[in-house]
UniProtKB/TrEMBL annotation:
It is found in: Cytoplasm. This is Adenine phosphoribosyltransferase. GO terms for cellular component: cytoplasm. It comes from the Bacteria. The lineage of its organism: Bacteria, Pseudomonadati, Pseudomonadota, Alphaproteobacteria, Sphingomonadales. Keywords: Cytoplasm, Glycosyltransferase, Purine salvage, Transferase. Its EC number is 2.4.2.7. InterPro entries: Ade_phspho_trans, PRTase-like, PRTase_dom, UPRTase/APRTase.
Length: 178
């Protein structure tokens, strides 16, 4: 399948979660076996080209794509979790949201010193969560080789913020607007 064919599998929900937002729903993509497999294969090919030694994914939808990419490449998967989900001492980073803050955590033993990590998530919008994950993985000793997304919303500037932080970014598809 081509990226355009995969893009046609994304459902757009207008005015969710609030008026004026066009929500890009990946549920229809992951519910399409051939499409999901093709998308994972595209992400895996890019991760392999970046020299990935591990794949990291942010909770929750990054787990779907990241774990599938890691399994396809027979690489370790590093879960970047929401607070309070890991049963061991963690490294944590707080980051800004539109209104307030949030936190991500990782098991520091999950990341090897100098390990080339590729971050995988379903969507890049403003980049806050992805930037926090990059910061956290670097603090844990990893080298973030690339960030891969199924969807980029370039008008929101998140991919550019990652590039400014020294992380190459690729997406399978992009949608204008937010």
């Amino acid at each position: 399948m081509t990226p355009d064919a995969l893009k046609s599998l994304i459902r757009t929900i207008p005015d969710f979660p609030k008026p004026g937002i066009e929500f890009r729903d990946i549920t229809t993509l992951i519910g399409h076996g051939e499409g999901f497999a093709a998308c994972v294969a595209m992400l895996a090919e890019r991760a392999q080209a970046a020299g990935a030694q591990a794949i990291a994914g942010m909770e929750a939808r990054g787990f779907i794509f990241g774990a599938a990419v890691a399994a396809k490449l027979a690489l370790p998967f590093i879960p970047v979790r929401k607070p309070g989900k890991l049963p061991v001492p963690v490294l944590a980073v707080d980051y800004a949201l539109e209104y307030g803050t949030d936190r991500l955590e990782v098991d520091p033993d999950a990341v090897g010193a100098g390990q080339r990590v590729v971050v995988v998530d379903d969507l890049i919008a403003t980049g806050g969560t992805a930037l926090a994950a990059v910061q956290l993985l670097r603090r844990a000793g990893g080298e973030v080789a690339q960030a891969l997304f199924v969807i980029d919303l370039p008008d929101l500037g998140g991919a550019e913020k990652l590039r400014e932080a020294g992380v190459p970014v690729q997406a399978v598809m992009a949608f204008a607007g937010h």
